[in-house]
Amino acid sequence: ALTVYVLIPIRDAFSWLPWPLVTGVVALAGWVLGGWRLAALTGGLVFAIAVTGFWRPAMLTLYLTSLSVIVCMCIGVPIGIWAARRPRAARVVMTLCDTLQTFPSFIYLIPVIMLFRVGDLASLVAILAYAMVPAIRYTYLGMTRIPATVIEAARAAGATRGQILRKVELPMALPEIMLGVNQTILMALAMTAITALIGSRDLGQEILKALPEVDTGRGLLAGLSIAFIGIVADRLIGAWARRRKAELGLA
């Protein structure tokens, strides 16, 4: 049911996206966040992906990455908040995060194949397991770095615990959380190249096809397309985080 009613419609929607629309939206976001130089960089990189001829695999990569990042943040942010409020729990959570980061990426493929067979769902679960750590860690860091005086001022003003979380802690921790989103995207992109081994039909599959044929050009262009997606996400999120920190006086 998850594959038929959720994953396939989202995949089809991403596959439909035309490259002029995506290029224009990305360039506009770059111009708003960082001026014409960022707009030229991000828009140019997206246009370069279209020129390589790997637009549809790139959109399938973006589909898996976007969906996995959203799920990672929905799970990782609450865990990071919970760990930030409980020092004992934080030690356990950070130990688990360190353990997950030390596992080779191929290890995550074994249990997902056993449980979910081959397909997009297995790829999504493998990416989640690999890319979850930054969402937890950066949320924890953002929450613990909020000045205690700010929290005390909110309490003195009569704010409840929930109001402090929603109106003080999360807005101030948001730049750090967005950096966690950035790292989650990069790790998810790295894992998509590995999930080609279990049936994903994205840029990782193009690299996998190039290996037995010793097609250096095809593999290099597919790898560069993955890198371009990561660079665009990194530059846009980094520009937003810097602006938000400056607005909060944290820069």
Structural account:
The chain is mainly alpha-helical. The protein has eleven helices and no strands. It has helices spanning 2-16, 19-34, 36-52, 55-85, 87-102, 109-116, 120-144, 148-156, 161-195, 203-213, 216-248. Helix 6 crosses helix 7 (120-144), helix 8 crosses helix 9 (161-195) and helix 9 (161-195) runs parallel beside helix 10 (203-213). It is globular, with a radius of gyration of 20 Å. The N and C termini lie far apart (46 Å).
Weakly predicted, low-confidence segments: none
Profile the largest sheet.
none
**Rg from C-alpha positions?**
20 Å
Q: Quote the distance from N terminus to C terminus.
A: 46 Å
Instruction: Estimate percent helicity.
Output: over 70%
Give me the strand/helix succession.
HHHHHHHHHHH
Instruction: Give the class from helix and strand content and strand pairing.
Output: mainly alpha
Overall average pLDDT: 87
